Amino acid sequence: MYGSLKPGATLALCTLLLISFLLIYFLPEQNPSASITNITDKLYCSKPPSAIHESRDELEAALEGASMANKTVIIAVVNRAYTVGDKPMFDIFLDGFWLGEDTRRLTNHLLIVAVDQTAFERCMFLRLHCYWLKTNGDDFVDEKVYMSEDFIKMMWLRTRFLGDVLRHGYNFIFTDTDVWWLRNPFPRLTLNETVDLQISVDQFDGDQWSQTNPLNTGFYMIKSNNKTIALFDEWYMQRNTSVGMKEQDVLVELMHKGVFKRLGLGVRFLDTIYFSGFCEDSRDINVVSTVHANCCRTIRAKVTDLINVVHDWKRFRDPSDNKTMDFIWSNHLACQNSWS
């Protein structure tokens, strides 16, 4: 017979048994050598999945995290200027997904591309899919007024990045954050295999295939294939020979020089009845999917007039509102006055 244990030895034995139990409980069966760090990760999940890139390509990881089954993502680019203020533009943009019809689930496939730390931290706080696009020393923190030198630089940075997305094999909807989503736009976007690019316009000329439509790069859907990758490569190469021109103007110039036909691209121009903006209001609130604060110069003016759009939408959706009268959009006065 063994002699009885001393009180100190009994305590040590109980402690050892407790530690052994905890290790057996927390360590996965397939990895018995996992460290205490693994146990901590089980207890406290400190980062959402979209922020953990491990050793994989960071962009690929971010795209994969936000992707639909058919490798399609929704992409918006944000800087600090869009995340600060009493009612930031970024918050208004996200309000559309909350208040719109069949839009809430789309945030699962929304990738926010931040070009500075503040925008990235705001995105992470909201627990969205986030990617930090490093800018090699360029400062894109503050507002970049329309057609300023920094504004043009930021547009070309965006174009280069979106070309990289295509090269990774992902289709995407690109949306400016001053585009308010009232309804899920996918039912209004064709899945026809012959259509490579579907792009919004400032005013619709009545023909969805006509290149006389003034295209707007603030909202478009594009497929990843050799033709669209070639388009973005050629488009981005024009940046150094197009001084003083924003990327949208360069694309319009390429279109008129026949780049779409030469590359064999099927391009559809989106009717403003469904994809509208301040340049041309939708004629039918019952079917419109998006409203773009285009034809506007400053963030402050865009915020003011987009808040009016939110109020218009709530008024339309209010069951107690008198629907016998024709719906009329609020005037976009702040944006109209932003040019003076």
Description:
The protein contains eleven helices and ten strands. It is an alpha/beta fold. Strands 3-2-1-4-7-6-8 form a seven-stranded mixed β-sheet. Helix 5 links the parallel strand 2 (110-114) and strand 3. Helix 4 (89-99) runs parallel beside helix 10 (299-317) and helix 6 (149-167) packs antiparallel against helix 7 (226-237). The longest helix is centred in the first third of the chain and has 20 residues, at 7-26.
Question: Short description, anyone?
Answer:
The chain has 340 residues and is an alpha/beta fold.
Could you give the topology of this structure?
Elements: H1 7-26, H2 36-43, H3 58-66, E1 72-78, H4 89-99, E2 110-114, H5 117-125, E3 129-132, H6 149-167, E4 171-175, E5 179-181, E6 197-201, E7 215-222, H7 226-237, H8 247-256, H9 259-263, E8 267-269, E9 275-277, E10 290-292, H10 299-317, H11 333-337
Parallel strand pairs: 1-2, 1-4, 2-3, 6-8, 9-10
Antiparallel strand pairs: 4-7, 5-10, 6-7
Helix pairs in contact: 4-10, 6-7
